[in-house]
Amino acid sequence: MKWLLLLLAGFAITASAADISGTWKGTADTPAGSVERTFVFKVDGTKLTGETSSQMFGKSQIEDGKIDGDNLSFVITANFQGNEAKISYKGKVSGDSIKLTATIPGMDQPIEYTIKRTS
To answer: What is the residue range of 40's domain?
Structure first.
């Protein structure tokens, strides 16, 4: 009986990951100016995949994506004027919006996005 309860608790934890599958969009102020970014998320259990794009930085694949309850994290490789940088994102889901913090190597100030579901 004890094992059954642990197994059911494990399923409940896995099932509680927020369903953020779909398209999200938001704008952040950066040292390079205001950047609008679109995120297309795909969730499979606790695995987060998809892609993100912006006019300034182009399209990037979501790597190492995880979602645990309302918390998510992932990495993208962005290209700006021929230079590649790994950007780490961490965020928290709240209904149809997500607050994301992007950390870029060599930058002291993280970039804050609030993105909204568009579909």
So the answer is: 2-117
